[in-house]
Write a structure and sequence with these properties.
By secondary structure, this protein is mainly α. The termini are far apart. Helix content is 76%, strand content 0%. It comes from Streptomyces fradiae (Streptomyces roseoflavus). This is CDP-alcohol phosphatidyltransferase.
């Protein structure tokens, strides 16, 4: 009887979560069809277990930073590649779950959102720092200049994260609602955003078993992030400039 009640509680939470999703606008295909559904399953399980959104955020951080620590401390191998990717991917899914759980429990709060963003920023900074440490300790790099790649990647990733966050916060609320209905999310845009999706970035660590392949893939993603950074910054500045002061 108790097992049936637990199952029905989980199923009910899952059904309610399906109708309480954030907009798909500006979201890549990976986040829309992989990470958010995975987060929904984890959010329903967390709800059934009685966890709070902040607890889920901290569990997400534990998985992510376990992957970061392994990357920095353990010599690269195919086994490490799978372990780091799994830790980062689960951490990312839990990062989606905490917000979904907050909406399900109707407990969204500025403090919870702040904690989530602080963990995200720390995760981005630490992950690229761990790549730098791994490069220095374990990789046979073509030259010392390659150590600058993780530093540049870290800067580009943090600027995309903070720039997008600030642009969203500074835009007037309710502006879109006053006009025509918002168009459906663009699938082409969702595909184009894949290279800068954190979940796609995590998959590059599956290549850690080969130094040359990982270095090439990581550097290619760095170049893509720099190009997107320039495009995003121009877009966000243009949009914020168009806002008339009250």
């Amino acid at each position: 009887m108790m097992a049936g009640t637990a199952e029905s509680g989980y199923a009910a939470a899952l059904r309610e979560l399906r109708g309480a999703q954030k907009t798909a606008k500006g979201v890549s295909l990976y986040s829309r069809y992989v990470n958010r559904p995975a987060g929904r399953i984890l959010a329903a399980a967390a709800y059934r277990a009685g966890l709070t959104p902040n607890q889920v955020t901290l569990i997400s951080a534990a998985f992510s930073f376990a992957g970061v620590a392994a990357l920095a401390l353990v010599r690269p191998s195919w086994g490490l590649a799978a372990a780091v990717w799994a830790a980062l991917a689960v951490g990312f899914a839990l990062d989606s779950a905490d917000g979904q759980l907050a909406r399900l429990r109707k407990e969204s709060s500025p403090a919870g959102e702040w904690l989530d963003h602080v963990v995200d920023a720390a995760k981005i900074a630490a992950l690229h720092a761990a790549v730098l440490i791994s490069f220095h300790r374990f990789f046979d790099l073509p030259g010392p200049g390659w150590l600058l790649v993780p530093l540049g990647f870290q800067s580009a990733a943090l600027l995309i994260f903070t720039g997008g966050l600030l642009a969203d916060k500074l835009k007037p609320r309710g502006a879109a609602a006053a006009g025509a209905p918002a168009p459906p999310p663009s699938r082409l845009r969702a595909v184009a955003l894949l290279p800068v999706d954190y979940g796609v970035f995590c998959s590059v660590f599956l290549l850690l078993g080969s130094e040359r392949v990982f270095l090439a893939a990581y550097t290619a993603l760095f170049v893509v992030h720099v190009l997107f950074l320039v495009a995003f910054m121009a877009k966000w500045f243009r949009e914020l400039t168009a806002i008339r002061p009250v």
